[in-house]
Write a structure and sequence with these properties.
Two copies of one chain form a homodimer. Chain A has 347 residues and is of the alpha/beta class. The first copy, chain A, folds into two domains: 174 residues, NAD(P)-binding Rossmann-like Domain (Rossmann fold, 3-Layer(aba) Sandwich); 120 residues, 6-phosphogluconate dehydrogenase C-terminal like domain (6-phosphogluconate dehydrogenase C-terminal fold), CATH 1.10.3660. The first copy, chain A, is built from 14 helices and eight strands. In chain A, strands 3-2-1-4-5-6-7-8 form an eight-stranded mixed sheet, sandwiched between helices. In chain A, helix 7 crosses helix 11. The N and C termini of chain A lie far apart (62 Å). At the A-B interface, helix 7, helix 8, helix 9, helix 10 and helix 11 of A face helix 7, helix 8, helix 9, helix 10 and helix 11 of B.
Amino acid sequence: MAQSRISILGTGLIGSSVGLALAARPNRQYDIVGADRDRSNARTAKKLGAIDREVGSLEESVSGAGLVIIATPVMAARHILQEIGPYLTAGAVVTDVCSTKADIMRWAEEYLPDTVSFVGGHPMAGKEQSGPAAAVADLFKNATWAITPSPKADERAVGVVLGLVEALGATPLYIDPAEHDQYAAAVSHLPLVMSVALFRLVRDSHGWEDASLLAGSGFKDLTRLASGDPTMSRDIMMTNREAVLHWINRLQTELGTIADALKLGHEPTYDLFQSTQFDREHFLLNPPLRRRPDGPEAPSAQDAFGRLFVGGLYDKLKETTNKFGAAPSRVNDAELKRKLGVRDDDL
Amino acid sequence: MAQSRISILGTGLIGSSVGLALAARPNRQYDIVGADRDRSNARTAKKLGAIDREVGSLEESVSGAGLVIIATPVMAARHILQEIGPYLTAGAVVTDVCSTKADIMRWAEEYLPDTVSFVGGHPMAGKEQSGPAAAVADLFKNATWAITPSPKADERAVGVVLGLVEALGATPLYIDPAEHDQYAAAVSHLPLVMSVALFRLVRDSHGWEDASLLAGSGFKDLTRLASGDPTMSRDIMMTNREAVLHWINRLQTELGTIADALKLGHEPTYDLFQSTQFDREHFLLNPPLRRRPDGPEAPSAQDAFGRLFVGGLYDKLKETTNKFGAAPSRVNDAELKRKLGVRDDDL
């Protein structure tokens, strides 16, 4: 029975969305316990069916759980990792959904007992709203879910987290924690900074009252991330500061390059927008492939909870699952050029 | 009969969406003629029911039309304004949907005969895709539609365009063309530049193949505008260059300010994200009000096509319709603070 309890620590948007998806699985043989520093969050999660039971302490929450999912901002996760050690059941699998991975992996290594396995995780999905009321069971459908197993995590533990990810409809991606943080800085944390910059800039400008009347879907989309939970944002920045600063700097330079093109006139400006449109369409039509493990080592896709995932650890997993360079292009460039009305000598 | 013909010049996303909405109106007493430099666009628009008839020349398209809607990129609109003069029916109303307004207004003044009225327009709505196949009848529903009547436009002409805007479900906003371009640079053209900058920066980076695997909804949303039609983008930049360069420069500075906060540490970083979240939620919950004209001068909301809109010209309209400063806040700050869990001394 102990092995069939799942504990969710932090019942905000992500934790409650995980709970809703897990709770909805047919014939499930686990119960879901949830805790939140803000107990009204946990009560809402319970009311919405994201957890079966709400408890008030970390001890009560993780005791007897076979899988513990930490779904808080990064700094709160550190605190949890420091506290839960004594209460964890031997053999438990601990994972997280935090936005940065290097610090988390180090803390797990430092604070967790050797009797449990830690496998880091990060779903590349989210919403403008935060809190359990915004949770939806299909939040992770088709999203990439980065997985960073600790070097000490056993294969069974990796299999459990892989099973969790697949149960939520996401696609697992094995990645080194430091690499994860570098890339996430570019595709996730920099966009967050940009959203905040755009909103503040226009909001604080002299013409805001008039300008805001003209704000349409473009402005709303580009500033969406600025509505995110500020604690989560702060923790992302504080645990990935150097990488984010690096990308902010590069963005400032890129903006200068674009300004130069505008100053040069019609042709360079057109080339800039045309080549960018072309590359983005190519990206959308030919998304990078995340191939699942195949062959006899692949887990049964049905329900990997508690099953043994037969495979190696990080390097081996990465090697066998993340190949995408060799995949054939599904929309070739000539086709895309025709679609966009681009002449051959334009790009 | 002549007065009941509407001509759409340019049957891309915007022109065809206007056409679809106009074609769908019950008991309509006008026919819709469309033309496009790319005739396959116009044929698609015809097939989709956005226009009743496709014609191959500007002359044929505007002859006998009571309302001419120019729905092309800005530079193409200039060419059209230069050409259509001789073929326009006396009393015709000419409008446009272009992204910048100052140049258009000058060209209309310069090229159009005194026998017609020009009323500029710009719907603050769009989509990632371009072309008639992406058109939808409700594209403008609840969007702001900027209206810039030329000083010479008569009241009837303003009423016709107001009727058009209301028929499409949008909310009209009278605005001075130069002001429009300044504000649009901030809330529309700068976001476009940012989308392009983010996509290019990450796409051209060494780690793109790996980083793109982690690109989730945040990256896709923030780079959405980079998929826009490059001709439209170029024309926006070329007709509003100084304002866009000004905002790019301010954005670079704002990014530096944010970088400084990150370097200062936890507290300044938290304050930055928290105050921005607060201001954005306030903006979303209390959108700036665009009051419609009220009192005896208001047009019947039913169908203003061809009716006389009794009201003044730009200044008077602006005075009576754009008041929003005095409106009561619908969600007060204390309420929002509670919702976001902000303590009184935090902001």
